[in-house]
Write a structure and sequence with these properties.
Layout: E1 4-5, H1 8-11, H2 17-20, E2 25-30, E3 34-35, H3 47-60, E4 66-70, E5 75-79, H4 81-89, E6 94-100, H5 105-118, H6 124-136, H7 142-149, H8 153-161, H9 167-174, H10 180-186, H11 192-205, H12 209-220, H13 237-250, E7 254-259, E8 262-267, H14 272-287
Parallel strand pairs: 3-5, 4-6
Antiparallel strand pairs: 1-2, 2-6, 4-5, 7-8
Length: 288
C-alpha cells in the first residue's frame, strides 16, 4: 500500500498534534510485528460488538486505520485494539495503520484516550480511569484534560467522581446494568449500606434515573418523608438479591426471614423427587 500523509482523523485528536507528531503517514504493516498498548484505556470488549466488527471487516475490510508508533523492532499499538483483535480473528496478515512518531508515554495515553472518547468506544468507568491516569501519573490538570478531549471541566470532574463508587457498582456501570445517571444519583447516598441496597433495587426493579433520584431524596431526608425509612415494611434489597441467587442455584423457591439480625432460610420442595434432588445438591456443595 502506498504511503500517505496523515489525514484529518488523527489531527482532530489533539489540537497541537502538529507540534508533537512529525512525518505521520499511513502504511500497510504486518500484524505479527505489532505489540499491544500497555496504556489501552478500554478494558471491556463486548462480544456482540466484536462479532459485528469481524463481520464488517470480513465484508468491507479495514476502513479506519489503527494508530501505531515505531519501536526498535516492529510497532506498538496506540489506538485501534478492537480492529486489531478482529483482524487477528480473521487471520489477516497485514493491517492499515497511521504510523506516528511519539516518544512520550503521556502522548500515547492522550491519543488512545481521546480517540476512544471521540469514537464513543469507552464505558464510563474506563473513561474515568483514563482521566485519572493522566491526572495522577502525568500531573495534567483537569481543565487541560477537558480542553484536549473537547468537554467541559465539570464533565471530567463528574466522570472522575464515578471512581469513588464501590467496585460492585463500578462493574455494573461498566457492564451497562446501570447508567451514568444512576451512578451519579447513588453517589449522593452517604450511607454505604443504603447505597448498596438502592443499587440492588435499581437492578432488580429496573428503576429509571428519575425514580432513583426520588428515592435518594427520601433516603437522605428520612425525617421529612417517612415513606422511606427504617420501618418494618422496608424491603432489604440485599437480602432480596441473595434470595434470587439461591433460587437460581437450587431451582426452587427460597425465602429469607430476618428480624433483629436473626432469621431463617426456607427452601421449598414439591415432591419426594424434588427433595431428593435438593439433598444431592447439598451433598455436592458440602463435598466441594
Amino acid at each position: 500500500m502506498a504511503t500517505k500523509n496523515l489525514g484529518r482523523g488523527i489531527n482532530a485528536l489533539i489540537p497541537d498534534i502538529n507540534e508533537k507528531i512529525s512525518d505521520a503517514r499511513i502504511d500497510e504493516i504486518k500484524i505479527n510485528m505489532i505489540e499491544v498498548n500497555p496504556y489501552q484505556p478500554r478494558r471491556e470488549f463486548d462480544e456482540n460488538d466484536m462479532n459485528e466488527l469481524i463481520d464488517s471487516i470480513r465484508a468491507k475490510g479495514i476502513i479506519q486505520p489503527i494508530t501505531v508508533r515505531v519501536l526498535d523492532e516492529g510497532y506498538q499499538l496506540i489506538a485501534g485494539e478492537r480492529r486489531l483483535r478482529a483482524s487477528k480473528s480473521l487471520n489477516l496478515s497485514t493491517i492499515p495503520a497511521y504510523i506516528i512518531d511519539v516518544d512520550s508515554d503521556k502522548d500515547i495515553i492522550e491519543i488512545a484516550l481521546i480517540e476512544n472518547i471521540q469514537r464513543e468506544d469507552l464505558n464510563p468507568i474506563d473513561e474515568a480511569l483514563g482521566y485519572s491516569l493522566l491526572m495522577n501519573k502525568y500531573k495534567i490538570k483537569q481543565d487541560v484534560i477537558a480542553k484536549k478531549v473537547g468537554k467541559k471541566r465539570s464533565t471530567v470532574t463528574n466522570s472522575l467522581r464515578l471512581l469513588k463508587l464501590p467496585p460492585e457498582i463500578q462493574n455494573s456501570l461498566s457492564s451497562q446494568k446501570i447508567t451514568s445517571g444512576h451512578a451519579r444519583a447513588l453517589l449522593s447516598v452517604e450511607n454505604k449500606r443504603k447505597m448498596m441496597n438502592l443499587w440492588q433495587r435499581i437492578i432488580l426493579d429496573e428503576l429509571s434515573v428519575r425514580e432513583t433520584e426520588k428515592l435518594v431524596k427520601k433516603i437522605n431526608s428520612p425525617k421529612k418523608d417517612k415513606s422511606y425509612g427504617n420501618t418494618k415494611k422496608e424491603v432489604d434489597y440485599h437480602l432480596k438479591k441473595i434470595e434470587n441467587d439461591l433460587q437460581i442455584k437450587f431451582g426452587t423457591k427460597v425465602e429469607i426471614k430476618e428480624k433483629n439480625k436473626k432469621g431463617k432460610i426456607q427452601i421449598a420442595f414439591y415432591s419426594s423427587d424434588d427433595l431428593e434432588r435438593l439433598l444431592k445438591l447439598f451433598e455436592n456443595i458440602m463435598d466441594e
